[in-house]
Amino acid sequence: MRPLTRQSPLDEILAAANQVVLGKSRQTRLALCCLLARGHLLIEDLPGVGKTTLAHTLARLLGFQFSRVQFTSDMLPADILGVSVFDRERGDFRFLPGPVFAQVLLADEINRATPKTQSALLEAMEEGQVTTEGETRPLPQPFFVIATQNPSNQIGTFPLPESQLDRFLMRIELGYPDHGAERALLESGGRREQLPTLTSRLNAGDFAALQAQAGAVHASAAVLDYLQQLVGATRQDARLVHGLSPRAALSLLAAARAWAFTEGREMVLPEDVQAVLPSVARHRLRLLSGNHASAEDIAALIRAVPLP
């Protein structure tokens, strides 16, 4: 595999994204790694910190067919998947695809919808298809869900169940901008108006090739041992309801490979595993207290497992 250069499309995408989503270069890189690893992304934070802007930015820069759904408590599964209507001229029913039939579905404020509506995405996220009215229909490829959610302590939210959370390869938080980034926003009046001017940095099929290259990044036996030790430590932690599953371990490896790839390397280092571990693990680990694992919990886990 040829290593990335400073002029690679990924460098251009990250540079362009960082001109729109200010002061969040690490979160932007994590989001891109999630897509390179063929995963779905959950962005959780307060309203107004740039969650939707980041999703729009990535979709435009990657050249994906984009669809946005604002989730509400009265939304039904058919509002996402689609519905059949009777066509009088043809004398039969015709299926009208819902917004899920796109390469990138932005599920905005997903936890404002009821669990029944949330679950409509499970098959789409796991299988790349939807089954409605007894018929299974494939989704466009590649297919990604970028979901945003508000903190669960806010009024009018429905917590995502573990089965839904596990479908997201990563969960990231944006947080407040630093002083310099916020000043730039105040002086420019915001960056959302730049979205229509963004153009794709990739041709059709280019991203699939980048995904294949990211998936081919070498992970040595020592790195796999280290990853397994981290996963095993979560299964032995008495503070946790349960540890990371094999699917979570595969997600962690895929994310670490993608992170190494964006850094221009052909092999995974333990530092790559550490870099993506919080985003891959926190939403999958629940403490006996009922809360999800914190950044401090993951940092303690990393300190407890010796480097290879």
From TrEMBL:
<dbReference type="GO" id="GO:0005524">
    <property type="term" value="F:ATP binding"/>
</dbReference>
<keyword id="KW-0067">ATP-binding</keyword>
<dbReference type="InterPro" id="IPR003593">
    <property type="entry name" value="AAA+_ATPase"/>
</dbReference>
<feature type="domain" description="AAA+ ATPase">
    <location>
        <begin position="37"/>
        <end position="178"/>
    </location>
</feature>
<dbReference type="Pfam" id="PF17863">
    <property type="entry name" value="AAA_lid_2"/>
</dbReference>
<dbReference type="GO" id="GO:0016887">
    <property type="term" value="F:ATP hydrolysis activity"/>
</dbReference>
<protein>
    <submittedName>
        <fullName>Recombination factor protein RarA</fullName>
    </submittedName>
</protein>
<dbReference type="Pfam" id="PF07726">
    <property type="entry name" value="AAA_3"/>
</dbReference>
<comment type="similarity">
    <text>Belongs to the MoxR family.</text>
</comment>
<dbReference type="InterPro" id="IPR011703">
    <property type="entry name" value="ATPase_AAA-3"/>
</dbReference>
<dbReference type="InterPro" id="IPR027417">
    <property type="entry name" value="P-loop_NTPase"/>
</dbReference>
<dbReference type="InterPro" id="IPR050764">
    <property type="entry name" value="CbbQ/NirQ/NorQ/GpvN"/>
</dbReference>
<keyword id="KW-0547">Nucleotide-binding</keyword>
<dbReference type="InterPro" id="IPR041628">
    <property type="entry name" value="ChlI/MoxR_AAA_lid"/>
</dbReference>
